[in-house]
Amino acid sequence: MTLADTPPNILILSGVRGDTRRYRTLHLHQQLRLACIDCLLSHATDPRLPVLARQAAIVILHRVSYDPYIAGLIHTVHARQGLVLVDTDDLIFDPQAFKWIDSPDFQDPLRASLYQTDMRRYQQTLEACDAILASTGTLAKAAGALGRPCWVHRNAANLEMVYLSELACQAPRPVDSKVVIGYASGTPTHNRDFNLISPALQSALRDHPEAELRIIGYLELDSSWNAFSDRLRRYPALPWRSLPSWLAQLDINLAPLVLDNPFSQSKSEIKYMEAALVGVPTLASPTDAFAAAIRPGENGLLAASTLEWRAQLEQLMAPGLRKALGQAAYADAHQNYAPQARARQAVALLNQLSAGLGRPFRWQANFAERADLKQLWWDEKLERHPTLTEMGLYTLRHRGASTLAKQAWVYFRRWLARFIPYRKRGQQ
User: Fold this and answer.
1) 180: which strand partners?
2) Angle at the Cα of 234 (from 232 to 237), degrees rounded to 5?
3) Fewer CB within 10 Å, N side or C side of the chain?
4) Could you read off the pLDDT of 14-23 as tens digits, one per residue?
5) How does 313-340 read in b/e, with b if 16+ C-beta sit within 10 Å?
6) Which of 298, 316, 336 is the endpoint of a domain?
């Protein structure tokens, strides 16, 4: 029996944990469920995977490193004329791009070696697939250079994000003249990005004593920031469910990225979307993704040079402009980044790529009115699985004890580093 004789089924799985998995697999799964499309969500460590793969017309692999086990799954799908898609949301499939990653983690040679090995494995997975889904046009172009057709499916919000953002919008804010500028760093790879805007940001703080800077997450600040210690507030990395309430307290959201870095250029416009959901305007670097999302002077602002960053920050000191840009960004987020909007695009994309790759699969979206959209939310427990133990057992079975030992050592060192002041890590 071939897949043409059975109802089409979609299997979505990731090889990692964290926010990247959430955005590219949990969100997509929710989008397809909104459209009443038959799909399953899984993970590379799921012991049911061989059975699930034998039932799927399309398997979507997100950050799944190539190994003999994955090679067997891909062969199973291809043997039944199914399609294997690779979903990528970062330039992790190009080993040559490693030199562009600015992360203190890679001061550890073992961590750097493991990451580069994974990059080569991701490239092998991509080369074994039929087509690629990418979060940005820049990524699609880079992946397409490896000889596979590419389609862009941009990141979007999930239903719970939209709900929590609405609650955050309704929360009262202090009535004062303070202008709160915010920057959220999700990973320890953004020091160069933030340093790009530091001179303009410090100039704005000097000229506007009513301005305050708030920073989330992993960021090293040099001694030049000591002069602003009374107006600088730092927060640890926040779980995503807590982010809307933090963003809603901002007046200006910052999203700088180094423009001459291919790794940065591949990033999506998530920072714009998350702030837009709570009506906060974003000032961003004009990467391809931000330039696609932000219409300067209408729903946000873009800046490339220090002079432009300083000039745009000065403009945003005007409350009337901030309000207008924030309202337009809010409307744009609900029109273009809501899960319902992205669900329609996802179904159209699956039909388009199936036809383009010569498969008879066809999905018909059904956006029936639901009494309670919360039924499509996922349980928080889902994000805690697989456990580190389950991932370790997968590595042991399919990549060997040596790789597992290296991963465990790197994890231990990173865990230990949490107890060392961040600024001193590079000196250890």
Assistant:
1) 212
2) 155
3) N
4) 999 999 999 9
5) beebbeeeebeebbebbbebbbeebbbe
6) 336
| 205 and 224 within one domain | yes
**Do 77 and 181 share a domain, yes or no?**
no
Asked if 191 and 179 sit in the same domain, the reply is yes
9 part of a folded domain: yes
> Which pTM was predicted?
0.92
Domain that includes residue 269, residue range: 159-336
For residue 109, cis peptide bond before it (omega within 30 degrees of 0): no
Torsion sign (Cα): 273, 274, 280, 285: negative
CATH number, position 254: 3.40.50.2000
| Distance from C-alpha of 282 to C-alpha of 254, rounded to nearest angstrom | 6
* 3 state SS of 382: helix
Per-10-residue mean pLDDT for the chain, 428 residues long? 59 95 97 93 95 92 96 94 95 89 82 92 96 95 90 97 97 87 82 92 96 90 92 93 97 95 91 98 97 97 97 97 98 96 95 93 82 88 93 95 91 70 40
Whether the Cβ atoms of residue 323 and residue 173 lie closer than 8 Å to each other? no
Residue showing tokens 């109802």: 7
Percent share of the chain, pLDDT over 70: 94
148 and 174 fall within a common domain? no
Distance CA 283, CA 286 (A): 9
Q: Are residues 361 and 296 in the same domain?
A: no
* Residue 69 shares a structural domain with residue 80: yes
User: Do residues 167 and 296 share a domain?
Assistant: yes
Q: How far apart are CA 131 and CA 53, in angstroms?
A: 17
Number of independent structural domains in the chain: 2
Q: Where are the beta strands (DSSP E) in 143-247?
A: 150-152, 179-185, 211-217, 232-235
CATH number where 119 lies:
3.40.50.2300
> What span, in angstroms and rounded, lies between the C-alpha atoms of 311 and 172?
30
Taking only the tens place, the pLDDT of each residue in 196-210 is: 999 999 999 999 999
